[in-house]
Specification:
The chain is an alpha/beta fold and 301 residues long. The chain is 44% helix and 22% strand. The chain contains 9 helices and 14 strands. Strands 7, 8, 9, 10, 11, 12 and 13 form a 7-stranded mixed beta sheet that branches. Strands 4-3-5-14-6 form a 5-stranded mixed beta sheet. Helix 7 links the parallel strand 9 and strand 10.
């Protein structure tokens, strides 16, 4: 039977590329970690590493086992955490979400006493996959798979951020058709913001020839500030940029934030309660910013 300790040493060597470094990080001696890997290789009848001038390199069999070991160890660690929480009668959950959602919603919710113990960062199109790798709840601007329990949390208006025009007071809103006449920056091909802007533009035959793509919303703002363009994002303004709500035919272009979790989770009822509480927090957090910009624009979930 495979032992968790041997699997941890296997992953440690793969990550370090060196037995000595792996031993140091694992707080054991080099001979001890070498013996465990040798025992594992004898048990399996397979070589798991090759020693090269550049360090320890996994064999094809080692690569296969390392991937499975990471999954097993993640589940073991999560199981231990869950059991501790049950023993202590705590209900603290791990949320997988994009960096922006973590910074603007989840971290403030934690600070306000929300039952969240950690954040796992992931791109919007990958957040839900982390439910199989230790996350209890996932947030994304992409619609959840049908097999998961889910809830729309909040609608977040897209904003246009640009450098202020000296001597002129900018109105609180701007139409998409006006924005795209000059260079503008979108936050990544996989972004729900980019998809939403493109859907709105295509519906009315608006061309997006001047669009530039950044890796994320923060970098989109940086490029906008440095290149005198506009950034279409949901983050709060940075780099001295001024924000306006982005409209299309007089209506805000909204990105939905969804929550999803596994129906058979051991604490499904508690997660559902957390989601309801978190939704109220998110709506309250979005509301004041957009009320000021757009005369009470609704962002309810």
């Amino acid at each position: 039977m495979l032992e968790a300790g041997a699997l941890r040493y296997l992953v440690a060597i793969a990550d370090a590329g060196s037995v000595s470094i792996a031993a140091e990080r694992s707080f054991v001696t080099q001979p001890a970690i070498s013996r465990r890997i040798a025992q594992l290789e004898r048990q399996l009848g397979l070589k798991l590493f090759r020693r090269t001038p550049n360090g320890m390199v996994p064999t094809p069999a080692g690569e296969r086992l390392i991937g499975m070991a990471r999954d097993v160890l993640t589940r073991l660690d999560r199981a231990e955490s869950v059991m501790r929480a049950l023993a202590d009668q705590r209900r603290d959950f791990v949320i997988a979400c994009p960096v922006t959602s973590g910074d603007f919603y989840v971290a403030p919710y934690m600070a306000a006493g929300g039952a969240v113990s950690g954040i796992m960062s992931a791109p919007p199109d990958e957040a839900f996959t982390l439910l199989a790798h230790g996350a209890d709840l996932a947030l994304s601007t992409f619609a959840p798979p049908a097999h998961l329990r889910s809830r729309r949390i909040v609608g977040i208006p897209i904003h246009c951020h640009a450098l202020p025009d000296p001597g002129a007071e900018a109105p609180p809103t701007v139409e998409l058709e006006e924005v795209v006449r000059r260079p503008f920056v979108l936050p990544g091909h996989a972004s729900a913001i980019t998809h939403g802007v493109r859907r709105a533009a295509e519906a009315d035959g608006i061309r997006l020839d001047l669009a530039q793509i950044a890796d994320n919303g923060h970098l989109a703002q940086a490029r906008a500030a440095g290149g005198h363009a506009a950034a279409l994002v949901i983050e709060e303004p940075a780099f001295g940029l001024e924000e306006r709500v982005l409209l299309h035919n007089g209506e805000p272009i909204v990105v939905d934030l969804f929550a999803a979790w596994e129906a058979d989770h051991y604490a499904e009822a508690a997660i559902a309660e957390l989601v309801e509480d978190f939704a109220g927090f998110a709506v309250a957090r979005v509301g004041p910013r957009n009320a000021e910009l757009f005369g009470g624009l609704s962002s309810g979930g």
